[in-house]
Amino acid sequence: MKTTGLALLAALLLLPAAAGAAAEKCRDDTMKNYAGKYILLVEGSVPTGEDGVYCCIGGRSALDILKEAAKGAAAVIAWGNCASFGCVQAAKPNPTHATPISKLIGKPVINVPGCPPIADVMAAVVVHLLMFGRGPELDAQGRPREFYGRRVHDTCYRRPYYDAGLFVDAWDDDGARKGYCLFRMGCRGPVTYNACSVTKWNQSTSYPIQSGHGCIGCSENGFWDNGPFYRHLPSFPGFGIESTADTVGAALGIGVAVGVAAHAVTTNIRKRPLIAETVKESSPAGQTEDEEAQ
Ligand code: SF4
Question: Can you tell me the distance from the alpha carbon of 84 to that of 179, in angstroms, rounded to the nearest whole number?
């Protein structure tokens, strides 16, 4: 794919600069004049039930339009969890047979999931294609590794609290006010691959965890069916302190220390007073939880 002459077909279902017949003409002209050179950006899953009647645009099914537009595309990007994995439309029982783009067009697709995807990541993937004339390296789910290579948990600023076993147990408890880890409130950061904790949102202003809400795993395949939300993950892959948050609590109580896993637990538990002290020093009144209660 040559970068020169690459055209951008802004989106299959939504063209912000035009609407109606003007948008249709823009799409048709791009497909005709830049055959084999345009990048197709697709938003939304495609309902395939009943011959695609659940989503029709200008008298044609979304499925029909997608297949036509994909034919001459130099690269295809699926924007968001809907186009990448089906998202809420494809959640059980999926009455419209909503289907991800990669299963419909018979050519490679770059998945950029998220609900919504991060704007900086979207722009970066397009820029990568334009700069290098090829797509970025992808993971097993078709996501660019440079942005989906690490868990939200790995770069989360609340991670020290997780490691020290300091958790929020209710939305308005002292732990919540002190910014403790949201794992017990259902945070899925430990099993979610995305760049939210690094790039953040709205010009790096914040992201869900910084706003006090756990990650809901919106960049993962089938995240609506992986629920329920707001219940902590019973367990997930990892060693020692990552086996479960409840294990941490138990270890705090009985002081078990056996083998490598237990070493990881106890090492992080030792940090707990230090972290609690840091919270104390940074709080306006410099008070501990116990002092505040008195
Ligand atoms: S469980 Fe969630 S809030 Fe806690 S450290 Fe991991 S990503 Fe951050």
Answer: 32
Residue 188 CA: nearest ligand 1 atom is 2
Lowest average pLDDT, out of 195-204, 221-230, 253-262, 283-292, goes to: 253-262
Cα 167 from Cα 158, distance rounded (Å): 10
Distance CA 134, CA 119 (A): 20
For residue 177, what pLDDT is reported?
Answer: 97
Pocket of ligand 1 (CB under 6 A): 152-153, 156, 158-159, 162, 181-183, 187, 189-190, 209, 214-215
Does 33 have pLDDT greater than 90? yes
Q: Whole domain around residue 121: which residue ranges? A: 7-148
Atom number of ligand 1 nearest to Cα 245: 1
Domain boundary among 130, 148, 166: 148
Answer whether 0.70 is exceeded by the pTM: yes
